[in-house]
Amino acid sequence: MGWEDGETGADNDWKMGLDEDLLEHLERRVSRPGEADEGGRAPGFEQTSRELEERYRYTIALSPLVAWTAWPNGDILDIDEPGLARTGLSLGEVRGQGFFAVVHPDDRQNVATMWRRNASLGHDIDNEVRMRMRDGSYRWHRSRAAPLKDSSGKILRWYGTIEDVHDRKLAADSIRWAAEHDSLTGIWARAAFLAGLDTVVHRAAEAGSEVALVLFDLDNFKQVNDQFGHDTGDALLKDVAARLSEAAEVPAMVGRLGGDEFALFLARPDTARLIAAIDQAVAALDAPFRYEAVTYHCRSSVGVALYPADGAESDTLRKNADLALYDAKGGGGGTLRYFRGELRQQMQERLSMLSIARDALDRDLILPYYQPKIDLRTGRIAGFEALLRWNHPGNGVQPPATIAAAFDDPELALALGERMQDRVLADVRAWRERGVNTGRIAINASAMEFRGADFAIKLIARLAAFGVPATSIELEITEGVFFDNSDAHVLRIISALRDAGITIALDDFGTGYASLAHLKQFPVDVLKIDRSFVDAPSACDWTIVRAIIGLGKGLGIRTVAEGVETVERRDALLNDGCDFGQGYLFSAPVAGAAVADLLEADRVR
User: Fold this and answer.
1) Do β-strands 396-398 and 366-375 pair in parallel, antiparallel, or remain unpaired?
2) Which of 153, 171, 318, 500 fits 470 for a cystine, CB–CB 3.0-4.6 Å?
3) Which of 381, 391, 382, 463 is nearest to 429 (CA)?
4) 310 near 320, Cβ under 8 Å?
């Protein structure tokens, strides 16, 4: 085969590359009934064949496609010159199975399998393989072919083309890689990871093996970004991805589901080896994280669900792993929890609470009750704490425990907090207009509410809208605000509120995350001693109570003991120097309409 000058050589080479059946077909196309030359050929056949030859010659010369012909079994019969030039092979080397030598070793099995299948079925061929070039490099090519069959369906020849698709293939692979992988860490992205999970679960069902889905949520990751900057946060995410990838021995897959949440699935023959692999992956995050001058211990909440014990389908497995992760985070973080059946019931209860809270907000059923705080030295009412209640249409006033899950929901916690502020400030305005002096009214702010950068601004604006001075209000915050927010964020809000005249009380002190360093760093006016230390205390509990009271005195911070229900507790607190008491010994929480009566009774007592 060739394109040398010279009519005869070109004619012969071209005709050698064409099948006799094809030549016969061409002859039939230019024949007309009753028209033939002396040799039995139709007039114009020679001219037509030369025109077709020229058309074929120029089409192939200008086309990036390399034409080839093969016998029915796939042995190469002929290939155009560009194909030989690319590979560096001669026509003699290519014929038969010789061209197979330039196929990449990793692609040869697929090519052989395809030929066996298509040769028996007579289907068209369309596949992509890597071919070795003259310089030894490999490039992707697309090979397409169709069989020429006789009237009985027997394959006579294969006619095909080879197209260089290397650049297009790499571009498509790059796009696909970007779609399937997380751009920051390089591990699998959410959609690709979940697709892989679905595949491994199906394979495990066929093989009788077991699969673990492990979800990781980095505790306090927001604080890393806020305190050290996003560069450090990004470096931490990359490090976590690298550690999990290194620890997860195949068969396994590591993915980033979004934000600071990572996922890992592992397939093993039995539960024992599965749990060992899980422990190995979790342990990989124990070592401190280091980036430039920052050393940080990365705590993670981990939730695990096992196939087939915790779900027969990947979607069920994912939901149950989510429940286990939620349970781990609810336990304070830094723990690993396996899925348990009761978690599903707990989730149903949580969803029910959220539904009830939404309904209470929509129907305007939220209302404050007020419990007095007593000056233990004088026995007089010094102020009140506003406690959230909601009014069930059939069952009456309900405690906040019935909608407790709503205070952990960002949207509902904010809505409930703002509704309570409106109700309390409306009551304070009404009391002030009547000349009723209630002292400071304490309003609770959840950790979720405190996350908002504009929390202080909005509360101060709300006070102005109701015409209530900031000196009438105390804000009670839980120790969880230090866990959920950066120190700088907390300090900005507390400082803004105190500058406006609002005092700050730290609620449930000694039960959560606040430390002596927080008391030194943040301007707090009041420490509230949790009722768990006051109500029926052990000797150890009372030692803690005394320590908190002493701490308050040393720092100039007033102390309030919650849960005072007996005279003995009141007297013990007074003797140890506690400033205020709050509890059923003095009064249960009452509706706003009863506050004036409590104050009047206290005045005449």
Assistant:
1) unpaired
2) 500
3) 463
4) yes
